[in-house]
Write a structure and sequence with these properties.
Length: about 230
Amino acid sequence: MSEYAAEIAPVINVAHVNVHASAAPALTDLAATSGLTPAYLYDLRFTLPLRPLPRAGLATLYRYASDHEHTLRRHLDEGTLTEDGDGLLRLTGKGLAFVHRLYDLHAAAVGRVWAGHDLAGPAELVGRVLDAAERLPDGALELVAPPYEPEGAGPGLRLFNRLSVLRYHRADAHAAAWEAAGLSATEIVGLRDGPERAGIETETNRRAAAPYGVLSATERDTLYDILLKLI
């Protein structure tokens, strides 16, 4: 199963990135016309409409970044997020309206990039994998799963959203692997290719493999083949 996790991870990444790339021009226009910062509204569109996010969770979701406070302050100043006395971040009505416009952009992008493909099947398969994925304590996945799906979302948008959130399971697996190797986030970013990095990638694949076991061998092959066609 580790080999499968290693093989499907880059396919998921490319399928995910292609939709983002297609939506990028429209996102630029939306940010310009609305005067709002996409940032966390864009990145966390699949969790903020459902649940508050602890401020401390930003450090987990953005393990390799250091500008959390600056970005958060922009959202608070623009009135798209609020923070209560317990440090919980919530979307405002203004923020939610922006998120729904983001979903419209992604629905259109999916319609362009994945046109002509059966998307209901893979959306269901990815949903099952996501349901089976372990939520590690203090991990990223527990902050973003299950994902928010707008009412009436089509299969393509559901697939895109579920792939987006599933990537956090592998991110947690990777973090657990480099932490077990005694490295910090800064150190893993700077680690060159070699035996140590290869070992961390092997351990990442081992940890990331488990939820794919919920699928039969035929279903795993089907999911891989369909996602490969999407790129």
